Amino acid sequence: MANHNEIGKKGEEIAKKYLLDKGYKVLACNYRFKHLEIDIICEKDCHLIIVEVKTRQSSYLAGPEDTVSKTKQKGIIKCANAYIIEHEIDMETRFDIIAIILNTNEKSIVHIEDAFYPLR
């Protein structure tokens, strides 16, 4: 596995533990719809929360959260819609980003709630 894939998987595990420690109920990890994927789907306070995890070794050029483009957001929203239909969910939905910096000197986690919204 390529180094960036290993860092991404490690970041997803850190994010999952972080969410569980904060009282979130994890419903699914790496949910796929066609070629799209959601990293973590969870529930808290009667909300369905769709989480995109971005892990980087440095924030030198940009923070991990800055790499979630509008195109990526549209894909996440489309994938979330498929999950909602498949599981017949009737809850408010929120889209979060968890940005992680992970290297030998640093481990930081930033949880951005309501990071983006579906276009109406």
Task: Give a topology summary.
Blueprint lengths: L2 H19 L3 E9 L2 E9 L2 E10 L13 H17 L5 E11 L4 E10 L4
Structural description of this entry:
The protein is of the alpha+beta class and 120 residues long. It has one domain: Trna Endonuclease, Chain: A, domain 1 (3-Layer(aba) Sandwich), CATH 3.40.1350.10. The chain is built from two helices and five strands. The protein has helices at residues 3-21, 70-86, and strands spanning 25-33, 36-44, 47-56, 92-102, 107-116. A five-stranded mixed beta sheet has the order 1-2-3-4-5, with helices on both faces. A hairpin with a 2-residue loop joins strand 1 and strand 2. The longest helix has 19 residues, at 3-21. The termini are far apart. The relative contact order is 0.20.
